[in-house]
Amino acid sequence: MRFGIVVFPGSNCDLDCYHAAKDVLGQPTEYVWHQESDLSRFDCIVLPGGFSYGDYLRTGALARFSPVMTAVAREASRGKLILGICNGFQILLEAGLLPGAMQKNDHLQFRCEVRPVRLENKDTPFTNLGRVGQVLHLPIAHAEGNYFIDDAGLEDLLTNEQVVFRYVDRDGQTTAAANPNGSRENIAGIINRAGNVLGLMPHPERRAEEIQGGTDGLLVWSSLLKWWGERHA
Amino acid sequence: MFRAKIYITLKKGVLDPAGQAVRAGLHSLGYTGVAEVRMAKSVEVMVEANSAEGAEVLVREICERVLANPVMEEYSFVLETIV
Q1: Is residue A225 very low, low, confident or very high in pLDDT (cuts 50, 70, 90)?
Q2: A123 and A129 Cβ atoms separated by less than 8 Å
């Protein structure tokens, strides 16, 4: 399974994602500079975290116009797997590949901590090894993870089971106190209608090996490999 | 040449964390009469176009595609002719 890790000016989780795909999963992995226009050789394209274009204007707003994003949109429409983590999620929202928008955290603080996150949908290429209700402990590190969507959009997300991750408390409940940023309905990650584009604020690449303090994030990477393997055996 | 003064605000009903923080700061300074603060962005763009209509079409397009995010923001602008 071939992974492409997109590098924008200001990306800073690209090395971590590369390490997860290449060294932990053991899959052929390449960095892709944001000027590239052909991504057809990859099976999964990762938009990593960071501060692309310095977060100028709005997070993800300028990265969206990089040449590589035209190619990402093309591959997404062909059903390729696209994984946007943190700033990558923000870019997918700005590009319209996922619905909604990202706002400043409601308390205005940058939050960098490990958070319990509940898996809401396991019928995706990104989460098939999990079970619904399973709580993962994943790091978040952002100032703008306050997911916003209007009532009609939220209704669509819920009807189509597009919410994949939610912030929860120690007991797995979606309380207001468990919400680290003011995100609507404690949403931490969503998938598109077609089921091949996932965006999430927590960082699965930072919990892929024991040396990182835990392996809960491996679920996402291993699920991808399993999904792909079943179709290319 | 035209100058567009663009003003971008959060839609009504969209939470404005920065505005709330500024309001709280003003209250702590004693300005308790400040009922609400909404932050906004202002962008000035110089446009080369043959007519005001042409400039307006272009400014509207860049607002909708780039400068504002229609999911949560609204925009308005004033166009001035530069001689």
Answers
A1: very high
A2: no
Per residue in A25-37, pLDDT tens? Answer: 999 999 999 999 9
For residue A57, the distance in angstroms to the closest alpha carbon of chain B comes to 7
Q: How many CB atoms lie within 10 A of CB B61?
A: 11
CB contact under 8 A, A146 and B17: yes
0.90 exceeded by the pTM? yes
Domains and CATH numbers, chain A: 3-231 (3.40.50.880)
Which amino acid type is present at position A206?
R
Spell out which residues of chain A touch residue B14, defining contact as CB-CB under 8 Å.
103, 148
Complex ipTM more than 0.85, yes or no = no
Residue A226, min C-alpha distance to chain B (Å): 35
| Domain B2-81 of CATH type 3.30.1280.10 | yes
Instruction: Determine contact: B40 vs chain A, CB below 8 A.
Output: no
Q: Which of A101, A108, A148 sits opposite B21 (nearest CB)?
A: A108
Q: Where are the domains of chain B?
A: 2-81
**A17 annotated active-site:** no
